[in-house]
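Handoff note, outgoing to incoming analyst
You'll be picking up this chain. Sequence as last confirmed:
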Amino acid sequence: MAKQVIKVPDLGGADQVDVIEISVAVGDTVAEEDSLIVVEGDKASMDVPAPYAGKITSISVSEGDKVSEGDVIGEMETEAAGDSGDKDEEPSADATEESAEEPSAEAEEETGEEPSDASAASGEEKEETVEVPDLGGADAVDVIEITAQAGDQVEEGDSLIVVEGDKASMDVPAPFAGTVVSIDVKEGDKVSTGDKLGVMKVVSGGAPSAAKPEKKAPAKEPASAAPAEESGATTEPPAAPQKDHALHRDLTVSAEVYAGPAVRKLARELGVTLTKVKPSGPRNRVTKDDLHAYIKEQVKKAESGAVGVGGGLGVAKMPEIDFSQFGPVSTEPMSKIHKITAANMSRNWLNVPHVTQFDDADITELEDFRKSMKAEAEKRGVKLTPVPFLLKAAAAALRAEPSFNVSLHNDGEHIVRKDYVHIGMAVDTPRGLVVPVIRDVDKKGLYELAEEASAMAVAARDGKLKPREMQGACFTISSLGAIGGTGFTPIVNSPEVGILGVSKLSVKPVWNGSEFVPRKMLPLALSYDHRAVNGGDAGRFLTYMVSVLADVRRLLL
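Most recent structure output, in case you need it:
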């Protein structure tokens, strides 16, 4: 048996996807391609399969984690020889040891016989007593959490303990960098300013000379000035007193916000007003996760220019309503795809000046031809639906009217013209609406398009589309023909500048010059971005597409 490390495979360009399900447990025996975890990106979820068969020995991720390509999922034992990975690791460890030793040897050669004196001047360790700093007038506050232990390496400002006063809680930070020797308080103790908190071991010059400035005699400062200059250390007091003032504010300001000092410190660094952050911790306490979620939400708002399904761009936010006052209700979370779709639709609707043109395509001859080819298509293993015809007609229209095969550059001053024809196909799935993209539609035949469209639809419904399979479209087709309806106004999927809405086929009487005859009419709705496309261009595009659908022989011209 050989141990193999399992890593996240190529995610098709996605980064930092969410782990939404763990499909196996330690001890499970899996076959190659069995699902290990399920991850969800911006547009779809997908299984991460086992790269080979074997027994799961560890799982290194959990639900809610974010992973990227190359991250370790866990380990498994396999029958296949997998020792090469272990052998690769041993030399690297030796190389690390050698590289760690070589610089010290070189340093001895360069410094001659004086390295010990140099290290004594700048690297001597000594123990420093850590006291509870100024608590802003608070007295006998409770120790509610010990955040450092003996042996921990901490940086200046790292939290040692968390205390809670009458109005708020706060971190007590390390006054300097070093190693924690001991923490002399425990949870439940009460402490006041000046009480001994613990002992830290610090490197000479690393402990601030004025960590307790009020106890230093001014007359001694000149005597220590010369050694300080020789070692390169500064004799200026550090920022500890300023931190004490910040702690004072934590206890006396924003009493309506219940948050720990680490959270308050992070909020100050990020410039976030804590009263705007929605708390999720015990007793409505604001946690770091709440703060991160708030920042992430604000960044998304800034990037999208819209606020979910209400607000943004100066638009008033929808009022909050208690629907339970009208009758029984239940609340369920929106899926990630649903939330992203809502945000994208809001952004596109608010940013893109939409115009929609309507027409009916007479597809009587097309339907007769399609049904006549049904048996031949089945022999090829494909189902010939109207979709490949719509794709082919749209591709021909994009070539005939290239004003639709463009995108507006984000600088607002240029138009990007595309010399390829990739078309998105909206698919309704249990997870929400996704749009797989079929590439080079103009270069493919009807059977090939039918096969690819069917495969893409199945992958979309199974949640197995990769991010790159939903990117790069020039134009989108959204068909509600199987559901019904006589027409709708589709929203442009920016940065595309056009989208075609297809409704249900109906038989209508059409005047042929001498009489009314029954014809199969397909309602079409073309929405477009009026910044890039004018009415004349859209009229020509839709008219050309209608003519091609009415007589598919035109595709040969």
